[in-house]
Amino acid sequence: MMWDTADGDEVTTADGGLPNDATTHGLAADDLDQRLAGALERMGHVARTMLSRQAYLEGVSPLQFQLLLKLESTAGPRVSDLAIELDVSQATVSDALGTMRRKELVSKQQDPADRRNSVFSLTQQGESLRRRLARWDQPIADRLAPLEVGEKGTALRVVLEVVSGLQDEGVINVARTCLTCRFFDDTTHPETATPYHCLLLDVPFADPQLRVDCAEHEPRTVGAAT
Ligand code: SF4
User: Fold this and answer.
1) pTM of this prediction?
2) Does the C-beta of 216 come closer than 6 Å to ligand 1?
3) What is the 25 CA–ligand 1 centroid distance (Å)?
4) What are the structural domains, with CATH classification, of the chain?
5) Which residues of 165-190 are buried (b: 16+ CB within 10 A; e: fewer)?
């Protein structure tokens, strides 16, 4: 549909009378789902750009940055686990860790659980860089801070539901969220202010408390109800 603006220009409009949205790629002129997917893609682009800028400022690659955030001062996960979690090959992770060893950011040890494997931990230098990089997403958190807790809780659940669905379809490998956890129960007291229950800790909770990367997460069986 064509429409004349107050300045006399002609614009193509969608059903609601607003201009067409490029995120719909012309396939469905007013598809809310498509625009939400487009907004998430924009957000992902913003986050990747911020992370990359911060990484290069500190002299590391974005992957080395992500590895720094995954490792600790004590012996950490194996290369194979890191590769699965970051959705890259083991060779890519090994290369990045080799570079980080040369920069003296990580050290390599024999895996105490399996002597054929190696595990990596942060050096003091790596730990101090990790602390500097840990707040890379603060500008995003600052933008969210003024919003109502209820709004943020709903947004968190919606995004985690999308992540959970994509993990079930095999699009991503690892998501340690409540919605993909075998300890998550939303059937015991669903009509209350705290409709969920963490079966591991026996704690009721609600949307704003949903975990995005829980240390105690254990994967649920795919297809099990959340
Ligand atoms: S263990 Fe963690 S991820 Fe699992 S339900 Fe409890 S809080 Fe959520």
Assistant:
1) 0.82
2) yes
3) 38
4) 40-133 (1.10.10.10), 149-209 (no CATH)
5) eebbeeeeeebbbbbbbebbbeeeee
